[in-house]
Design a protein that fits this description.
By secondary structure, this protein is α+β, with helices and mostly antiparallel strands. It has a domain of 69 residues: 2-Layer Sandwich (Ybab, Chain: A). Helix content is 52%, strand content 16%. Strands 1-2-3 form a 3-stranded antiparallel beta sheet. Helix 1 runs antiparallel to helix 2. The chain is rod-shaped.
Length: 111
């Protein structure tokens, strides 16, 4: 007869889950500290966000500023922020994807 009725060692499973949670928390901290850029208008507007998507900076080339056409500038800002956020999401997938797969979609862990 197999000890424990052939069931996986619960202590070992808990330790693995705790390690995955620690790895995930560490990866999330790294994302929050990593800066990611996005741009629009051929670089006239540049946005910088953290890897977790928090806007940290915005650069606007003076050539993009036309007092008669603020709508275009607004569109460029939105596009640059969206590009930066898309880059941040790609970074998240790279950093968190393997951890999320390792969690097996465990409920309560945000996946």
């Amino acid at each position: 007869m197999i000890p424990g009725g052939g069931q996986p060692n619960m202590q070992q499973l808990l330790q693995q889950a705790q390690k995955m949670q620690q790895d995930l928390a560490r990866a999330q901290e790294e994302l929050a500290a990593t800066l990611v850029d996005g741009q629009a208008g051929g670089g006239l507007v540049k946005a910088t966000v953290t890897g977790s998507g928090e806007l940290r900076g915005l650069e606007i080339d003076p050539k993009a500023v036309d007092p008669e056409d603020t709508e275009t500038l607004a569109d460029l800002i939105v596009a640059a922020v969206q590009a930066a956020n898309e880059n941040a999401q790609q970074l998240q997938q790279t950093k968190l994807g393997p951890l999320a797969q390792g969690m097996g979609g465990m409920p309560g862990l945000g996946f």
